[in-house]
Design a protein that fits this description.
single chain, 498 residues, alpha/beta, Amidase signature (AS) enzymes, 16 helices, 40% helix, 12% strand, binds glutamine
């Protein structure tokens, strides 16, 4: 029998709908795969075997009863541990939420359940989604399935690694500065940050509310589109949710035709500081797009070099405010209650000191400083002005071209521990992904091959105007197909470490 973990999400849904295999068999195959490899990968913080098998059984009963199944019914998925799922531990990779079981489903979770998607468990992440390597998780790092000594990217390294390791065909990530796209790039998977407001943030534990957006992780562009279509759309429970029709991302993924499309290479992204093999694969992909009939030009975005600095003021400011609610009173951990006769403030301080790791603490301090009277205008105000300039760069660029492209990340997966003691080196991984978050526009990372010097995956980033997420899927799928024709196999069949 075929190995059910090797099927794409689209193929899985087809064989489940036809009755060729049951959703329970599919779920069990993935739970077995998790059992076999996750002690080495550590993509999951929590595996909900009983819940997954029950969800799968419900899909099988619905099929037996002749009900119409939705396009992803019976497909297993890994949920980033920043998204609430009723009754299931949600830690955000932090000690401070240890033991918390949310009393409600996030809108994304509810939509997945309603679509018959089988949620296998919660994936590892940098604490509260701060990081680019998943090493800032309080529960230990995730390992890259391509080379277990290397990082899977972050903050959603668990989601990307689960998909790359064939533990799940689909995963949900969240992207505030690159946490879906950069892990996708370094694990050879597809990752999409939708337009801000395109996917509900209700039940997504906030890092930086003006930047956060949930999106799909998958092994193919079509699978990502199917997941995108399942989770996107207006939600009255999120005041920033857009009340507009969702672009037809599935049709765009099936179209995969870039003839006549105007593609802009961002001049400021991809030069100095980018690994030679990353640039080589990017350049080859550009040549391929030209061969496919795209009209490729270079476009300047002069404010992009300032985006990283602005982000690292805006994000800590918002997160210092968002994380203030974790004080030991309502959620998870409480420390030092019985030690002496402490005041409420002392218990809060003890809980926060014990519950937050170094990176979270660093950003809370930076953000509190940036927002304090006397510094607000100098830091936060300035950063917001840069944000406006970045938005204007995008607006000007999209008057000339339909999509922009760049390498997703400056390097392939680096070694675990390599950048852990150097916050700036860690932050620089997001230099190409952050502009999209500041502008609220959508972005995708699609694999474009392996870097010749280390044999590790390289991602190409596609960027589109707000609510033109369909363009990402069109370009991504065209590249995916052209590369497949060239190699005769998808990139992930090569993932060698497991
Ligand atoms: N790596 C970036 C950061 O550390 C992005 C985080 C994210 O997208 N959640 O902030």
């Amino acid at each position: 029998m075929t190995d059910l973990t090797r099927l794409t999400a689209a193929e899985t849904a087809t064989v489940v709908a036809s009755g060729e295999v049951s959703a329970v068999e599919v779920a069990q195959a993935h739970l077995d795969r998790i059992g076999a490899v996750d002690d080495r990968v550590h993509a999951f913080l929590h595996v909900d075997s009983d819940g997954a098998l029950a969800q799968a059984a419900a899909v099988d009963s619905a099929r037996a009863a002749g009900e119409q199944l939705s396009p992803l019914a019976g497909v297993p998925l890994a949920l980033k541990d920043v998204m609430t799922q009723k009754g299931i531990p949600t830690t955000c990779g932090s000690r401070i939420l240890e033991g918390w079981r949310p009393p409600y489903d996030a809108t994304v979770t509810a939509r997945l359940k309603a679509a018959g998607v089988v949620i296998l468990g919660k994936t590892n992440m940098d604490e509260f989604a701060m990081g680019s390597s998943t090493e800032h998780s309080a529960y230990g790092a995730t390992h890259n399935p391509w080379d277990l000594d290397r990082i899977p990217g972050g903050s959603g390294g668990g989601s990307a690694a689960a998909v790359a390791a064939f533990e799940a065909p689909l995963a949900i990530g969240t992207d505030t500065g690159g946490s879906i796209r950069q892990p996708a790039a370094v694990t050879g998977t597809v990752g999409v940050k939708p337009t801000y407001g395109g996917v509900s943030r209700y039940g997504l534990v906030a890092l930086a509310s003006s930047l956060d957006q949930a999106g799909p992780c998958a092994r193919t562009v079509l699978d990502a589109a199917l997941l995108h279509a399942t989770i996107a759309g207006h939600d009255p429970l999120d005041s920033t949710s857009l009340d507009q029709p969702v672009p037809d991302v599935v049709a765009a993924a099936l179209r995969a035709d870039v003839k006549g499309l105007k593609v802009g290479i961002v001049k400021e992204l991809g030069g100095e500081g980018y690994q030679a093999g990353v640039r080589q694969r990017f350049d080859e992909a550009v040549a391929l797009l030209t061969e496919l009939g795209a009209d490729v030009v270079e476009v300047s975005a002069p404010s992009f070099p300032y985006a990283l600095a602005a982000y690292y003021v805006i994000l800590p400011s918002e997160c210092s405010s968002n994380l203030a609610k974790f004080d030991g009173m309502r959620f998870g951990l409480r420390v030092g209650e019985d030690d002496g006769d402490p005041s409420v403030e002392q218990v809060m301080a003890r809980t926060r000191a014990a519950g937050f790791g170094a990176e979270a603490t660093r950003r809370i301090m930076l953000g509190t400083y940036a927002l304090s009277a006397g510094y607000y205008d100098a830091y936060y105000g300035q950063a917001q002005k840069v944000r406006t300039l970045v938005q204007r760069d995008f607006a000007a660029a999209f008057e000339k071209v339909d999509v922009l492209i760049s390498p997703t990340a400056p390097t392939t997966a680096f070694r675990l521990g390599e950048k852990l003691d150097d916050p700036l080196a860690m932050y620089l991984n997001d230099v190409a992904t952050i502009p999209v978050n500041l502008a609220g526009t959508p972005g995708m990372s699609v694999p474009v091959g392996l870097a010749p010097e280390d044999g590790l995956p390289v991602g190409l980033q596609v960027m589109a105007p707000a609510m033109a997420d369909d363009r990402l899927y069109n370009v991504g799928a065209a590249l995916e197909r052209a590369l497949l024709d060239r190699w005769g196999h998808p990139i992930l069949e090569e993932a060698p470490a497991l």
